[in-house]
Amino acid sequence: MLALTLLLITVLSLSLPALAHTFTLQNQCEYNVPLFIDSWPGTVSYTGSPNLKLQPGQSTQITIPSGWNSRICHNYDCGNCWGDESMVEFNVRPLQLPRLSQPYGAVVLIWWLCGQMDAGGLAYYDISNIEGYTVPQEIIPSTGECATVTCTSATCPCDQAYPVGNEQGCGAVVDLPVKACASQDFTIIYCP
């Protein structure tokens, strides 16, 4: 009976969504990289310090709560992600949430981990240069089965990042810069 109970607990724990996600932030630049970890209004908030400054060669891990829905931006004033900073994004793209009419930062990494990530098992992520380009970035999912995206210039290919000024995903029917992955953890490298 004990063996059956342990087996059942193990199976159930494997089928439950992650309660948190680990993001490893690595600065391989020869300069400091100030970051701001934003939280989308009305969703689960990131509860750690939103302002980070990575020294050259520094790496740190942050814990993102399940249900978090937002972005991490390269941000000189550490105020928010609504300017001309570079970003990574994580999105719930199957829900086709509209992109904001407010300006994005340049090279923004946006991560929308709400709803579909935890319910459907996928995280949707992209690099955004919509408002401009400020720092080379790379998103690496923790599993090798998912696409790594890399953008090292303002003219990186559309399948790797949103181009400067382009909110349409390069005019394609499919939003080319957005990737989907069952991975729960990611590494973001600055100056890959």
Automatic annotation (TrEMBL):
The keyword Signal applies. Transmembrane segments: none annotated. Keywords: Signal. The keyword Oxidoreductase does not apply. InterPro entries: Osmotin/thaumatin-like_sf, Thaumatin. It comes from the Eukaryota. Residues 1-20 form the signal peptide. PANTHER family: OS03G0233200 PROTEIN. This is Osmotin, thaumatin-like protein. It comes from Calocera viscosa (strain TUFC12733).
